Amino acid sequence: HGEHAPKGVAPELVRLVRAQLDLHGFDEVRIVVSGGFDAERIRAFEAAGVPVDSYGVGSSLIRGANDFTADVVVVDGRPCAKVGRELRPNPRLERVG
Q1: pTM of the full predicted structure?
Q2: Could you tell me where the DSSP H helices lie in the chain?
Q3: Which candidate, 32, 44, 77, 90, has a CA 20 to 30 Å from the CA of 60?
Q4: Cβ contacts of 88 within 8 Å, gap of 6 or more
Q5: DSSP conformation class of 41
């Protein structure tokens, strides 16, 4: 408690990423954001001048109450997850193939 780990895409974080990329000479790197984006949220980001080059909108194209994501967290035994994600073993799953 007392700590907050930001989740999702915030305009302030995108601006910070863009500023750091530009500062270090990576101005050719494009920023793609995804996670909960629909037409309304994209309009808000665009109106606010958030430096986004492309939006991922997969979930907004599907109707229904279920929304999920999947992240690669380990490759060849090496952790590779983004911040806040980790391997969570599930005893109900079994390896196939």
Answers
A1: 0.62
A2: 11-23, 39-47
A3: 90
A4: none
A5: H
